[in-house]
Amino acid sequence: MTSPDPDTPGAETSRVTRAVVGVVVGIAIFACVGVVGYVAVVAVGVQGWADAYDPADPGTTAAEPTEESTAVGRETGLDASDEAYRQRSGTPESDAEAARSVPAVQAALDPVADGSAVDGAEVVAALADAGFEDVQVTGPTTPLGDPATTVGVGVAVPGGCVYGAVTPDAVTLDAGGPIADGGCLEMPTH
């Protein structure tokens, strides 16, 4: 075959057409390779991220589930990461030091639980009278807006926190480290 004469009418158009078609095909191939590569990288990244939070897979770096994280009403797996701010930090030594303050906090709050309605100001005043300065209490309403019959309380003490609840008839307390987002008392909702 002989090559077409460049002086032949239409020869110039075919060169331009071939050049345009070549550019379009090249861009299409480049786009396909890019999309396939992007999808592959995202798939590998998401799988690696999900595996890191899968407590069922022993080969991952996920923390072992604790009794609290698997209790009824608690989320596990990726949903548990939403609750991480509520987790208490501390060591056995610091928790034991905080526990030594439980009797003093209990003694300050027992008179408040006299069978009458309890409010946060009364709880704060009783603890201030006993010498506790850093005190947190829950508000006068529940997260749903109903009047609260229980006052949540958190008291900063050496070694961590004493935390619990005051109802009209009882005081329940525990000791441990502060929660991850700071303070002794977790927010009721967010």
Automatic annotation (TrEMBL):
Span of domain DUF6993: 113-185
Record-linked Pfam families: DUF6993
Region Disordered, annotated ranges: 57-100
Alphabetized UniProt keyword annotations: Membrane, Transmembrane, Transmembrane helix
Transmembrane segments: 20-46
InterPro entries according to UniProt: DUF6993 (IPR054262)
Name of this chain's protein: DUF6993 domain-containing protein
